[in-house]
Each structure stands twice: as structure tokens, then as C-alpha cells.
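PROTOCOL LOG
Step 1. Enter all chains and additional molecules of the complex.
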Amino acid sequence: MSWTDERVELLKKMWSEGQSASQIAKELGGVTRNAVIGKVHRLGLSNRAGAAPAAAAEAKPEPKAQPAAAKAKPQPKPAPANKPEPAPEAKPQPVATTPAISPARKQIIPAGQPLPPQPSTNEISPEALAKVSEIEKKAKKLTLMELTERTCKWPVGDPATEDFWFCGLPVQQGKPYCEAHVGVAFQPMSARRDRRR
DNA sequence: CCCTGATTCGC
DNA sequence: GCGAATCAGG
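Step 2. Run joint prediction.
Step 3. Record the structure below.
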């Protein structure tokens, strides 16, 4: 595949829209994200200047004044030092509360058996909760089968209803949930204690 | 581990 | 000009 006018145009469009290089590459097909990034640079729009007003104070004193000896090929190649790897220490402890109880559930009585006692909202930080309800609008609303190792597995709604789905947003590394849901699922023990009412 | 963009350099 | 390999960061 070569960079035809239309392909370049699509590239420019998507790039200025904030699409990632990999997304653009997928859309275009026949190219890798590296190719896209390379092209972006050659086109000179690496600064995402597509629509960004940009900060006036763009102090870019980069003289770029490389002495004639530009061919300089330093590459100090620092030695990969060992990683002491801090220490587990104060690791937040997973809270085993049942997620459910989305704001949408309200007072509707589940069609089936009454749900088990739900600790729900009262023990979760308001901030985290707010964050959740906000991103839930953007949720992918996946079905059980659509979940992958990389999609948030946070359930939303009532399983006894049609109004039930899984968040599906990109998960936080290692975790089973997206950032927002990790926020309500995992809490430092202290925070949990303090909230006790 | 997954992803992001940035850079280098042989082709 | 092109883009894989690599780098650097989240």
C-alpha cells in the first residue's frame, strides 16, 4: 500500500481528530502504526496541530543548531541498571462487595428473587462513584460473551433484566476493570474503615 | 502486559 | 520517502 492522496487525507483527518496511530493504521489497512507515525512526522503534523489552538507560550527554544558535525552519533547506551522493585507494602485490598446497583436500578424490584444484601453505595467514595456514573455512559455495554481479557468486566444493571451489560471499557493493566471501576472495586483499607458509618 | 508517540536508519 | 526496529513513557 502506498500513500495515495486519499489515504493521506484520511490520515490527516483522523490524526487531527485525535485518533491514535494504531487506530488510523487499522482504518487505513495495509500499514502499521509505525508507518502512520512515520508519515505523520514526514508531513510535519506531529504536534497534533490539527485543531489545537496551542498554548501561546510555546517556548520552543530548540535551536536545533547542531554543529556542522551533525553526523554525530553518540548514543551513550546507558547500562540497564537493576530494578530493586520497591516493595508491596501498603497494597490496597480488593473489596469483595457486589458491584451491581447501578443508579439506573433505582427501586425497581428485580423480576426474580430479591437480590442478596447489597453493601452498595454507602461505603464507596463519592468521587469514585461519580466517576463511575459518568463513564458508564460511555460503556461499551458488552454481553458476557463479548468480554475479553482486556475489557472491563464490571456488571451494570440487573442481571434479571434485559437492562444488563458489562462495562467493556479498556481495563487497567492487570486489573479486571477499567480505571473508574477499579476505583470503586479496590480501595485502601484505611479509606474503607474511615467511611464506616 | 497492553498501549502511546518519537526517533533512527537501512532500504 | 518509507517503515521496522527501537526507544521512552503510561
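Step 4. Note key features.
The first strand of chain A starts at residue 93 and ends at 94.
Helices of chain A lie at 5-16, 21-28, 33-42, 126-135, 179-185, 189-195.
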